[in-house]
Amino acid sequence: MKDWGQALKDSMVTGAAAAFASSAAVAWRGRQDSGSPLAPINATSHVFWGDEAGEVEQATWRHTLPGLLINAGAGVWWALVLQKLYGDQIDKHGLPAAVLGATATAALAYAVDYHFLPKRLTPGWELRITRRSLFLGLGAMAVGLAAGALLSRGR
Fold this sequence. Notes:
There is one protein chain. The protein is mainly alpha-helical. The protein has helices at residues 4-34, 39-43, 46-49, 64-93, 95-116, 131-152. Helix 1 (4-34) runs antiparallel to helix 6, helix 4 crosses helix 6 and helix 5 crosses helix 6.
């Protein structure tokens, strides 16, 4: 198992890739599902502002910036989980281990975010995109986690 210092270092690249991929996917799906690419990103700020944050469709400092920052923080958090649980295997075995570890981590993120945390702490995407689109966002997160883990490999 990677030590905490190395796992945290590797999770920065991995988490950035995961946050970028998931944000891009939910923006795309937000445009399709609700007519606004920013709506699901803004909805994440419901942590601070309640469900009315999901009604905001344009860029605002109050909703868009916190939404992006929360998603970035979550990306780094889940990347740290991936690096601690699977980082050594990814470093040794490459792509197959990265795909397996990233998929398992995204599934864990879904379980924690949507079945264990209080509703106020969910990603909020569900306020503006369909369930199918939510799973596409999580799939994109898994792809970002895998790609980021491979990029941070051996650093």
